[in-house]
Amino acid sequence: MYMLSNSLERVVPDLMTGNQTTGDETLLLHLERYHYAGKHLAPGTVADIACGVGYGSYLLATQYMQPGSRITAVDIDAASIEYARSKYKHPAIDFFIGDATGFQLQQQLNNVVSLETIEHLPKPEQFIQHISKQLVKGGRFIASAPVTPSMDANPYHLHDFTVGTFKQMFFKAGLKEVHSFMQVQPYRPFSLLGRKEERSKDLRKNIAGYYLQYPSKFFLRLTSLVKDGFTNKYLVAVFEK
Questions:
Q1: Helix %, strand %, coil % of the chain (to 5)
Q2: pTM tops 0.90, yes or no
C-alpha cells in the first residue's frame, strides 16, 4: 500500500491545502506548467519524466492529447507510481517506475515533458543529452527549473541555474528554443524560516551553517534579494530538435 506524505518535494494535490507559498500557491504553479506544456505539444507520443503522482500526466491526457496518442509516465518513487495508477488511471497513460537518467524507450518520442526535474539530478547536462537523442526530428523537450537560488533553502536541489545556464544545456544538446515564460512566486520569508507552513518542515535545517560552508551561496542569495526581492522565479521553456 502506498504511503505518501505532504512533503516539499512531492506534490500530491489531495494533500495540499491552505493559501501558502508551499501549499496551494505551489500547486497552481505546477498545474500552470502542465497546461503550458499541453498547449505546446507536438502531435504524437509523450514521455512525462519524473511524473510524480501522475496528476500532470492525467491533465495532459484528458485535456491536450490527440486521439490515439499515448503518454509514458515515469518516476523513481514506487509509492508515487502506485498512487498514480490508482488515482490517475487513464487508458492513454502507462505509468512506470524508473530512473530519469536511464530512461529509454524502443521507439523515438515526439515529446518529452520534464518539469522541475533537472535541479535534482547529479548530471543534468548528461540527462538532457540522453533524452534529446530519443526525440524525433521536430520533437519537443518541455522543461522547467528554478532560476533564482534554491540550493540554500532546499536540500533536495543539487544545482542553481540562471536563465542563461538553463537554456545553454539544451542548446548544447542541439535543441533550439521555441517559446518560454517566467513564473514569479512571492514568498513570505518569516513564515518559511519559522516553518509555520506545513510543507516548509523540509527546508534546510541549518542554513547558517550551510552558508559558512558555502559562502558563495550566501552572496548568491544576497544578489538575488537585491535583484528579485522575496520571490522565486521558474523558467518554463519549449525546445525543439
A1: 40, 25, 40
A2: yes
